[in-house]
Structure formats: structure tokens, C-alpha cells
Amino acid sequence: MRRLLAGLTAGAFLLVATACGSSDDSNSSSDKGSSSGGTTTVKVGIIPIVDVAPLYLGQKKGFFSKQGLKLSMTLAQGGAAIVPGVTSGQFQFGFSNMTSLMVAQSNNVPIEAIANGVASTGVEGKDFGGLVVKKGSPIKSAKELEGKKVAVNTLKNINEIVVRDSIRRAGGDPDKVNLVELAFDQMPAALDSGQIDAAMAVEPALTTMKLQGAVEIASPMVDVAPDLTVAMYFTSTAYAQKNPAIVKKFQEATAESLAYTDTHPDEVRQIVTTYTKTPANVLAALTLPKWPADANRSSIEALEKLSEQYGLFKTAPDLDKLLP
Amino acid sequence: MRGSNTALGAAGLAVFLALGEAVPRLGLVKEAYFPPTSRIASALWDEVTTDGFWSALGDTLTGWAVGLAIAVCAGVVVGVTVSIVPYLRETTASTIEFLRPIPSVALIPLAVLLYGAELKSVLILVVYASFWQVLVQTLYGVQDVDPVAEETARSYGLGTWARVRHVLWPTALPYVMTGVRLAAAVALILAITAELIIGAPGLGQEIAVAQTSQAVPEMYALIVVTGVLGLLINVGARTVERRALAWHQSVRGEVAV
């Protein structure tokens, strides 16, 4: 009898748990986001960095509302959390770097990139990402990083690939570098205290280090390809099939936002203060990325080739399926 | 006596703050990574004058309060039920001992899969962590019931509910209140952790944003806020405890007979 009671309690517990779970499923599987009065609210998974300024600026300028879209930004900790969020339907759209997207595609994760995200400036020494060494460091070129400790934010991802390639281009052996994983925000302190010899950082960590006297020895993203497409917005294949109209609207609004953002750097520096806490002196010195309206396919192919060369894919990704 | 305690506490805090000011100023640690107290204070002032800060504070407190309320109700109800239904304690003991040590943080992937970066995810972690505090204290409290008092109540013909109300509950209450006080602190820790790691809106997320933005003083300012919040919650919990147990000898402070 008592065991029966315990069983019943456990059963009730499970029932409640599954009930909660399934009610959530029905919410997310409606997949349209919530719509009211002709406006569709879509959730976008992003990282709070300058790269996603077009979404905030486009929202402010009314480019999205013009298409009947309202963006609800969800800040994710690092891009890795965004891909599962999009495939499981928690976000309708997401922002992710090209390498992560290609790795996901090569693993048959059902996603497709739908709009350009952000591109390197293509200018050596004036890119939004760079390889820096401490002030007064004897290291003058990427070649000298052989046997040295270099920090990247994520191993086996875009920054590792581009750093290795810069070392190779400078005449060094890319396999001899000692890469360590470190979050961007921890790089300035680590470089300063000598825990690492060099850091591959993007803004705002890059400017923070430069303001402390760090010297840029290479612009790895520029080295890979001129105007490298670094990141894109993507959605799940299922969502794109069910809601082609919304995806199209998102693409159009994003294209308009990208064009506007690219030509209004002052407004970018202003809008960034609304969703990050970047200090004013860093913000003023920040190198802004480029926001072309379209992805640069040949640069993505170059990145794909490198990623393959450094063993990121089990099978090569199908760019025709991935790209818009 | 109380006055001097407060004075000592304030003096201790002052020394701590002065150290926080002196250590970076003297160059023992780099100012850029550990800003002096005054710099943190001014960043704190900048924070509290923004709307974003208050809505984040509201989100955190909502997660904390709702989570704690669920955990306390569930903990007490389950605790009492498990104790008074014969054999249930024995049946569930191993399960409880198995589930209890699982760190709430380990459930983050589960929470994210189920609910994404929302309040519900925060609640899962908060409730899971604080539930056991209340449950275990309730179990101990119920065990502490004086058998003589229980037998007396029985022989006077009190029903189950009356015995729970007049014998079991007064005995268990001091334990339950300890559990609630512990749970209140744990709930805050988990609410902030969840926001920090999952990215649910709240103070934790603000800290994460400050971190990615290289805004070091702002980051420390927000950390200070969480500390103050913890302090206030502890003071609040102690007050509630004192009120609820005003009749109890541990609070009355009279010499026990």
C-alpha cells in the first residue's frame, strides 16, 4: 500500500514534469514566434558584441517593423549555445561564425545560413580581430610563435584556423604553436601577466589590449581571404520550410540594416552602448567590422579549405545547402 | 551590546573597503583588473541610475522569490508527508540521498534543453538547489518530536491533522526556519549562477555582459550588488525567523529551565 503510494507520488511527479515539458514543446513548435496585430515577434540568439549592431540599429530605425517583424534578442554565452537553441526552436534565428556553421552542416545539423552577419575589414593591421603580443615582446612576426603559448577563444574553431594559417604564411610551422583556450575577456590580463605570449582577440578585447600597449603582429582574418565573411545569421531548415515568408522578411530587413550600419559608424558606436557596457575610451578606439549586405562565397570557400586542412570536418560541408 | 556589535561590524567593513582601495593604488594588483573601491563605487552609481539595472534586479529577485517560495512549500509538504506516512521515510531515504548531492549547476544543460534562456530555467535550478535544504531540515525537525508529547496528544484523542498542527509543527518549525534561511541564500546564488551561465535576464546576465564588454569596474559593481543582496536576504531571513519563533526558547534567550 505504502509502496503503491510512493509509486503514485513518483508517477504524479513524472506526469507534472512531462506536462510542463510538453506544454513548452507546443509553444516552441508553433514556430512562428508570437504574432499579434500583423507584427511577428521572432527570437534571435546573439552574443552581445559589436558584430550584431545591425539588428539593434535596424530595429531602432524601423527596418524590421516595416517588414512586420519584431526582434526579441536573447543573449547567449558564446556562439556554441546558439546553434542548439535554433535547431530546438527556442530561437527562430541565430548569429554564428562561419566555421561553427560549416562544422554543424558537415555533421548534418539541419540549419541554413540566411543573411550575412559580419565581415573582416580586409585591411592588414586595421581589422576587428588581430593577433597581438605584449608591449615590448621580442616576438615580431607570426613565424616566431613556434613553441609559444597563444590564446584563442575556442579551440577547433575559426580563430584557431586563422592563427595557424597566419603562422604558416609567415613561414612558420603551424603545428608547433601551443594554442590554449581562453575567453576573450580574460586575454588582456593573461597577456599582461605573461601567462600567454600572444592572443588572437576580437573587439573589444583587442582595443583593450592595444590601449595597454599590446602590438599587433598579424591580422589573421585578413590573411585568409580579402573581405572574409566571419559570421552569418541562420535558421533551422524546418523553420525555413514552414515559414518562408518570415525568413524572406528577415533577410530583407537584415540587408537594409547591414547597408545602413556599414555607412553610419557613429550610430553604431552609439547603439553599442545600449546592449553592452564597453567603456567609452575603448568604444571610441574600436575598429568596426564591415557589414556587407551579402556573404562573400569565395572567402567562405577559402575558410572551408583551411578548416578541412586543419581537420575540423569529418566530411566536407555542403556549401550549396548551407548558404542562401 | 548590540550597538557595539554594529560598530565593530562597520569598522570591519571600513577596513575591508580601505584595503580594496589601497591594494590596487599601491600597485600590488593591476588597477585595470582590480579597480580600487572608489572606482567601483562610481561605476555602481552609474549602474543604479540606469533602467536596465533595475529591471535586471527585478528579474533576479523574481527568480529568487518564486523559486524559494516553490521550494519552501514543496519542501515542507513533502517533508511532513514523508515523515508521517509510515514506511515512506525508509522507502524514499536512498532516493533522497541520491538526488540531494547532485549539484544544481549540473542540471543546466537539462534546463536549457527544456526551457532555453528563460525564467523557467532559472526556476529549475533555484528550486532544485533550495528544495533539499528545506526538505532535509523538515525531516530532521519532524524526527525531533518528543514521543511523550506525541503519545499524550494521541491519548487525548487528537486526530492526525491536530497532531501535525499542535505537536509536530511547533517542534519542526525551528528546523524548518533554519532550512528556509539556508535556502534563501542558496536560491540567490543559483539565480545569479543561472543568469550568468544560461544568459537568462537578470543581474547575472548583466555581469556577463560587463565581462564581455571589458567593463571591469562595472563588473565588480554588479558583483557588489549581488553581495549586498545576499546580505539583505540574510538579514531578512533572520528577522522572519525571529518573528516566527518568538515563542521559542532559542529566540527568547531566557535561561532554559
Would you kindly provide a written description of the structure presented here, covering whatever features stand out?
The complex is a heterodimer of chains A (324) and B (257). Chain A has 324 residues and is an alpha/beta fold. Chain A folds into two domains: 34-120 and 227-322, D-Maltodextrin-Binding Protein, domain 2 (3-Layer(aba) Sandwich); 129-224, D-Maltodextrin-Binding Protein, domain 2. Chain A has helices at 2-29, 53-61, 63-66, 82-87, 98-106, 158-169, 187-192, 205-211, 220-224, 237-242, 244-263, 265-275, 280-285, 297-309, 319-322; strands at 34-36, 39-46, 69-75, 93-97, 111-119, 129-133, 149-152, 178-181, 198-202, 215-218, 229-236. In chain A, the strands form two sheets. In chain A, strands 1, 2, 3, 4, 5 and 11 form a six-stranded mixed beta sheet that branches. In chain A, helix 2 (53-61) crosses helix 12 (265-275). Mean pLDDT of chain A is 83; it is low at 1-32. Chain B is mainly α. Chain B has one domain: MetI-like fold (Orthogonal Bundle). The radius of gyration of chain B is 22 Å and the shape is globular. The chains are: A alpha/beta (324), B mainly alpha (257). At the A-B interface, helix 1 and helix 7 of A face helix 4, helix 5, helix 8 and helix 9 of B.
